[in-house]
Amino acid sequence: MSTPATDRRPPTAAGPTAPRRTPPTSRTHRWVAVRERVAAAGFMAPAVLLVTLFLLAPFVWTIHRGFFSDTRTSPFSWFDNYALFASDPALARSIQNTLMWVVGTVALPFVLGLAIACMTNAGRFSRLARLCVVLPYALSGSAVAVVWNFMLTTDGAVNQVLTGLGLDSLAQGWLLTWPGNTVVMILANAWQATGVAVILFLVGLQSIPPETLEAGALDGADGRQQFWHIVLPQLRPVSIIVIGMSLVNGLKSFDLIWVLTQGGPGRATETLAVSMYNETFLELRPGAGAAIAVVLTVIVLAASWLYLRRQLDVKGD
To answer: Do the Cβ atoms of 197 and 109 come closer than 8 Å?
Structure first.
């Protein structure tokens, strides 16, 4: 007797069958994406709120205040506050001093920092020399101004040393005449700012592969040629940082100038940052101070953007 075909089927495995997974629907994907965006917005909200309250809102209010005069008769003055740059001699001198500060605070820390970093990169007393150079950077601008005020006053240390050496003709009031007073303050600023340039350049020098220098020596390049064609090109990223920091710091210099001269004598040493403070809080002209603040902000942003764009474009090429 033959067995039916159904009887010859192999027995199925006992046990519960595994549940079949249903593929996620598009609605589920949308819900997950919305939840992730809400979570990201929640994490970013405190930072955005702080930036808006303490940076964007004051800047917008400053722009708004710059279009209003400081008199009650004609509050809205259009561009009268900005016209002061052409009519006020003190602001014209302030622009000259600001340009001097930009040139001095960019060139001196860069040149001195690079030279000191190269000389102290390897040597017996390199650590002690670096400490002496970097130490002023740990001081505040006000403390640096107090030290240099002790040196530069009429009966200060510099004139006393010159008198003791028989160089009485060189002794003078270093902070009393323009442009010498601006120059000596730029030197005081460089004394402090060179420290951070030395640190950054030392980091760049120690990151240069020694194989590149050895290859240059094998090709017959002397020390000067190795510096110009091997070392300096590899320090380009560090140079961009040093010059960018020096540029911004030079444009917004305030504390050292204020402690040394308070912008005097006769507002001769004011920069735009000092003029902004003087017009707003001493002359009680907040409209003029707001206009100076807007101009200074535009100059800082434009100079930084142009410099970084040029450097990054050259690096990309």
So the answer is: yes
